[in-house]
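User: Run a structure prediction on this.
Assistant: Running it now.
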Amino acid sequence: MSVSVRDAVLAACTFEVNARKPGNVTSEPGLNNRQYRDYRQSALEVSSALEHAGQEPLGNTILRAIESTQRVVGHNTNLGIVLLLAPLAAVPMDEKLSEGVHDVIAKAGVEDAKQVYRAIRLARAAGLGQVPEQDIAQEPTLPLQAVMRLAADRDMVARQYVNYFSDVLDFGVPILTRRFAEQDSLEAAIIAVHLEFMAQYPDSLIARKRGEAEAREAARLAREALAYREDPSKLARLDEWLRALGNQRNPGTSADLVTATLFAAFREGTIAVTAKW
């Protein structure tokens, strides 16, 4: 049964934040439920904003989604999610994501890059720093994929615009699908793919906020949790380490990649939006 873009976006965002992933915002009692409510509200906003993606320039879709989120919650809850979901949501429903996303990215020109830069500035993303070429504080002069290529070695979201979402479609979706088949629990599969992303690709947000060494340590602890799946203390240790400094070690980029993976699985019918939680 086919699913609409809006339903796939809403389900992906909602299930991602509901899953009890280490170090992330969660619905668990006592772990900042105000933030959790903001993420749930943001899911509603972005699902509406991306419903008609593909009917307007990609940059416009991204900026409109961030503007809508900012009006409702007033801070950055979903910049990475919007940057990842907008190109996928813009692929015509009669095309496979792996094929159609090439055309979506190829069509995104300088004006799209300008709109995306405005969205990033509006969201006030943390830890961006300054770069000598095409800095976020300036107006870009290159097409969207070209400016993303300049950041792809240090940012996993930007990297998807360069490798046409290979990390999501060829790495994330197969793992999510396999783990769901093994465990018959979508939450367990989400936690597993989150750990796999952290282990394989040291989290970009942790690296920006705390440095490469701590991002690599997070990856090591994630690999340890995966290696000892039957030992819940390993996952608990990772969660405790990630939360030890408040929000500074939040593996937010990994969570954004999980959301994109869920969207792709729902949109292409690999996993149903009604899957067993």
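The chain has a mean pLDDT of 92.
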